[in-house]
UniProtKB/TrEMBL annotation:
The lineage of its organism: Bacteria, Bacillati, Bacillota, Bacilli, Bacillales. CDD domains: IscU_like. Residues 10-129 form the NIF system FeS cluster assembly NifU N-terminal domain. It holds the Pfam family NifU_N. This is SUF system NifU family Fe-S cluster assembly protein. SUPFAM superfamilies: SufE/NifU.
Length: 146
């Protein structure tokens, strides 16, 4: 597949998650709720996690922002649902490294649709948009473990 076709496909995946977000909404009381924002551009994300016995049983999000931040939140919640907390954090680390253009030592990480966001790495101002939901998830897991 040519670069232009791949770029078009990735844009379509991002816009699909933006226009048809997966896991948008909230969870019942007792779930973790983490609010984060990106003051640079105004993106605001609220992540809801239900973590039981070291596993992300459910994940949802609410918020306002650009197509990158909201599609990333949609993709992330879809990817971490049913994963162990350890795997969810590994995915986040791998995603962060991808956004920074770094080589990762992590193997066997399948990001699925999330790979569509790899082009964001070319635009430093947008990296915070893409990583906002992931940082919120990390913060929530960290707070729960304390």
């Amino acid at each position: 597949m040519s670069f232009n076709n791949l770029d078009t496909l990735y844009r379509q995946v991002i816009m699909d998650h933006y226009k048809n977000p997966r896991n948008r909404g909230s969870l019942d009381e007792g779930s973790l709720t983490i609010d984060m924002n990106n003051p640079t551009c105004g993106d605001r994300i609220q992540i809801h996690l239900q973590v039981e016995d070291g596993k992300v049983e459910d994940a949802k999000f609410e918020g306002e922002g650009c197509s990158i931040s909201l599609s990333s939140a949609s993709m992330m919640t879809q990817a971490i649902k049913g994963q162990s907390v350890e795997n969810a954090l590994k995915m986040s680390k791998y995603f962060s490294e991808m956004m920074m253009g770094e080589e990762s030592e992590l193997e066997d990480i399948d990001l699925g649709d999330i790979e569509a966001l790899q082009g964001v790495a070319k635009f430093p101002a947008r990296i915070k948009c893409a990583t906002l939901a992931w940082k919120a998830m990390e913060k929530g897991i960290d707070e729960q473990e304390k």
